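Question (not urgent): is this output format expected?
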Amino acid sequence: MSIILSEAQAEAIAVIRDWYRTRRHEQQVLRVFGYAGTGKTTFTREAIQALGLEPMTPGGLGGVLFAAFTGKAVLVMTRKGTPAQTIHSLIYRTSEATPEEIERVTAELAALERDLPRMGPAERGFASAQIAQLKLRLDHIHEPQFVLNPHSDLRGADLLVLDEVSMVGRKMAEDLLAFGTPILVLGDPGQLPPIGEKSFFTDAVPDVMLTEIHRQAADSPILRLATMARQGQPIPFGGFDENVWKMPQRDVIPGQLLNGGQVICGRNATRRRLNMAMKRAAGYGADYPTGGGEKIICLRNRNDLGLINGMFLTLTDVHAHPHNPRAFRAAIRTEDGLVIPGEQEFWRGEYDDHVLFDPNRNRDEWLTRRGLIETSWGYAITCHKAQGSSFGTVVVFDEGFGGSAEDYNRWLYTAITRAEHGLLILS
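Got this back:
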């Protein structure tokens, strides 16, 4: 072994080896869970070596594949030497609505809205339900739909290792299971589930539960506060070491947040408010990026350009689009320092929503938005967007989150565990 394993980690590897050699055909999924600091990721490479498996080459047969829900988690895994991909890119292909289909749904909605005032009470009730359904359909009709890819590399793999699985819901999990490949899932049951549903993999009894804190993390005040958050214990105000504090929100102004690391909040409305205040404090008063060094985050994967949802970007040479008033053009450098060749095109909508939020913007601008890179101000991001990422220093803007104490505990725990060595909680 290249590392010294704890007794619990060695036992976990023994369970994985036994499952893979003797039970994987009867039990497709093996769940290995652990909270922050228990070393799930540390021993994964050792476990794969113990199985005698090698990473699978694209289009090949045999070997192990690695995947995660978020593009940023995949980026982190790849940087650490594990060749990974998103679940979406692994098992799905995209299917987009045709312009004719979109035009038909739009016309049907317009006709119903036009005729609604002339309808009787009974007709009006049914038509109103139809209108609501058509609006919901149009809200998402411009977005690519994901359908299973029958030619996925997963068909030929010996094993799939899924990391950061708390955000995988039932539908995606069932699609993964449909390929019949054994799956080793690594999860933290304390983290946030997918928006609006339960986590399929972590909302179940694990086969292995790592509870022993790795000795390198045992003295971390960040880990101590994360454990308190997960257990629902109140975190007092004050300092826990020179880099870890909890303070009242009223004691900090936007300009001070700029030097505090990545700001993480709960709600999109809060994200927009904080972004506007922080970018103004940084000296950027324009409604759109100017190429002056603003903090920009990518909101959707663009595999053709190597852009990943959650990746931070620097834009230069920003100027208006000559033909599309809802777009602008700029050159891109990624957070890894990679310069994307050529001039790229960006959607303005997310920046307009920071000035005045329009819940219908995605539906109304589907045509002008297609094919454009989607970005936003990145000074503040939601905790869901931060999942799969880590930052040297994190500012947790805590205003309460979720509909229950359990929801809040998961949110606060997930936000705190994004911090590597510096943390400020603002309540």
